[in-house]
Specification:
By secondary structure, the protein is an alpha/beta fold. 24% of the residues lie in helices and 23% in strands. It comes from Pontibacter akesuensis.
Length: 354
């Protein structure tokens, strides 16, 4: 009986993996596309509190179970904490965002422009104070353990039992070494680190101990792309390799990468040892401003970049034998601009058979 289930599911998985990923025509997703046996997570990044924010009505209409900020949640670019707090409060007063806050739990991480200023890292002298302002914006309780640590990294779990999703919110700013820049190029800094040793140890423990069916690793900077024209994990090759190796060795069930920063939407994938499914990264960036899409800069890209205002959706349809995950980049009016569907088998910890 077990062999029959696996052969059918593997066939379905193979068929899905053959499908190419292409930007879709301007199709809209209705407000009634929800179901009791689903989990929907929405996410986005690069949101200026000073610019129009036309995506919130579409995000609210999508009825997500959770909203995840991926960094540059505001554009502060300041060393003055009163200015930082004022800009966070401006975003909190935004009518569309207020509507989301009334209906949806919020979590997330930061990137450089809400951490401090462009390309800021561990050298930022106000990072401890900035951390508290960020956690205030996220509504994190005053007595939460993350208030006492150095960095905003933490996990968020949604669902329970065999319908659990765990989100690892990485902090790629507080401990990140300086970029090795030459003019506008981000050259490899082989000796540089991104997370800091305490965060690495935390991440290893959390990955090893996760019993979630789906594990989402969220980073302000992109992880898979390898271009030099912008900031990403590729600027720190050894740290990037360490992260991918850590996923392989800890082997959490069904890992997916989530990122922002780039002012475009994008999908990428890479093969990892020990997984039948490729490791996918979905990037959603550009909630209030975007750039023209590029043809280069990411050898792992599938499909094309989305050069439009966008947010992302994880739609998880839970099943007894197979779970379908639909990853989408959506635009104004819930238009689907990019999509990838995945099939996952129920995960059983190796220790369960001992």
């Amino acid at each position: 009986m077990r062999t029959k289930v696996f052969s059918i599911s593997h066939l379905l998985l193979f068929v899905l993996l053959l499908a190419s990923v292409i930007p879709l025509k301007a199709t809209s997703v209705g407000e009634d596309d929800t179901a009791p046996d689903r989990t929907r997570i929405a996410f986005g990044s690069c949101n200026s509190q000073a610019e129009p924010q036309p995506l919130w009505p579409s995000i609210v209409a999508a009825q997500p179970d959770l909203w995840v900020w991926l960094g540059d949640n505001i554009y502060a670019d300041t060393h003055t904490m009163d200015t930082l707090a004022s800009k966070y409060n401006q975003q909190l007063r935004q009518p569309g965002y207020q509507q989301l806050l009334q209906s949806t739990p919020i979590t997330g991480t930061w990137d450089d422009h809400d951490f401090g200023y462009n390309d800021a890292g561990k050298e930022f002298e106000k990072k401890a104070q900035s951390q508290q302002k960020f956690l205030d914006f996220m509504g994190v309780p005053a007595d939460a353990p993350v208030r006492e640590q150095e960095g905003v990294y933490r996990t968020y779990t949604i669902g329970e039992g065999n319908r659990k999703v765990k989100i690892f919110l990485l902090d790629v700013r507080y401990h990140r070494d300086e970029f090795n820049k030459l003019f506008d190029l981000y050259l490899p800094n082989y000796g540089g680190d991104v997370l800091g040793e305490a965060q690495w140890q935390w991440l290893e423990r959390e990955l090893e101990n996760s019993d979630a069916q789906i594990n989402i690793i969220a980073s302000g900077m992109q992880i898979l792309p390898n271009g030099l024209a912008y900031s990403s994990w590729s600027a720190f090759p050894n740290a990037r390799e360490r992260l991918l190796n850590l996923i392989q060795t800890t082997h959490p069930a069904n890992p997916i990468l989530l990122s922002g920063d780039r002012h475009v939407g994008e999908l990428a994938r890479i093969e990892l040892e020990g997984y039948q499914q490729p490791l996918y990264e979905i990037t959603s960036s550009g909630m209030t401003h975007h750039r023209e899409p590029s043809k280069s800069g990411n050898r792992y890209r599938i499909g094309e970049q989305v050069g439009a205002l966008n947010f992302g959706i994880f739609d998880i349809a839970w099943g007894e034998n197979l779970t379908q995950v639909t990853m989408q980049i959506r635009g104004v009016g819930n238009k689907v601009l990019l999509e990838q569907k995945l099939l996952f088998e129920p995960y059983t910890s190796p220790s369960a058979s001992l």
